[in-house]
């Protein structure tokens, strides 16, 4: 089952500068072979459901290893069985109507 | 890795009355053996990370089987390695300070 | 316009024990006169759209006053114009189908 | 109070092709004068808190006017008082560490 997701991950207990933690998660996501795109409040992720959630789990584990005692994520994840749709399809279907 | 999650799942393309779809997801979550608690905008879920995300995947699959061409979820999921914390601990830690 | 919302608010840069911050937000929400219900990963809020978002803004302001340099919220908010629906209606419409 | 937000808005009861509804929300956001950026699972929005939430309310109203009986949004919204930070700052602080 294909999925398009969006991950906003927040390490708690490590102060307010989260850039290096988010960068480490980006590296995890990129190494996973999934298609990803960073934006200002999260990261789009496209791939098989199992691969997407496995990569997100790995992000939690990496942040704990980096010293974060708590990690909280907000994940949007969508699946559809009527047709194949990519991240690019989704933005294009809006942009072509503007 | 233990997780506490909150799932807000929305089937698209099946009209506005979503009660029967959400009820079916509740049945999936309860059969999974995870601890769950329904509220007005989602369901709290407590358990092992892998079991939690497997149950959520099954909810997507069930809604597709019921006829929803698209399913979109908003998931909050938290992990902590400093100590064990249950859903009840979380609400109690707030309520005892009110 | 009536709204049913769910607020998950996270102060950043104040450590991992967030109970006292969440409790203070609960006090803000209760004083606002809105109907609220705390759960393990957020708080349901029911009322007029403007009152709901004003109360959430006040929660951010209060957490900043308490010393949090950053505050990040995840808010679910729903409106409907086909009929009146309360938080209790929402949970009941699922529970009666279980 | 400045805010950076991310809006994922879903009209319910209007089928599965949501592109024209999301495009109409994009027009509302752009007319509002706020800085926005569309991605595959939502739209980043930057501006004063009151302007951001007013624009989101208008998006709900517009979708109802277009015929959606129900509208459900997932909103991430962050504020910080330690320093000024833009959407571009947020992505740059991650990208320069990759």
How would you describe the overall organization of this protein?
With 98 residues, the first copy, chain A, is α+β, with helices and mostly antiparallel strands. Helix content of chain A is 40%, strand content 35%. A 4-stranded antiparallel sheet of chain A has the order 2-3-1-4, with helices on one face. In chain A, strand 2 (35-39) and strand 3 (42-48) form a beta hairpin. At the A-D interface, strand 1, helix 1, strand 2, strand 3 and strand 4 of A face strand 1, helix 1, strand 2, strand 3 and strand 4 of D. Strand 4 of chain A pairs antiparallel with strand 4 (70-80) of chain B, so a sheet runs across the interface.
């Amino acid at each position: 089952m294909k999925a398009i997701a969006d991950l906003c991950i927040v390490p708690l207990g490590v102060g307010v500068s989260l850039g290096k933690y988010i960068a480490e998660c980006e590296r995890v996501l990129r190494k996973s072979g999934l298609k990803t795109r960073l934006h200002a409040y999260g990261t789009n992720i496209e791939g098989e459901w199992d691969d997407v959630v496995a990569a997100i789990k790995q992000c939690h584990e990496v942040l704990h290893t980096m010293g974060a005692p708590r990690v909280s994520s907000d994940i949007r994840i969508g699946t559809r069985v009527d047709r194949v749709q990519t991240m690019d399809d989704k933005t294009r279907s809006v942009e072509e109507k503007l």
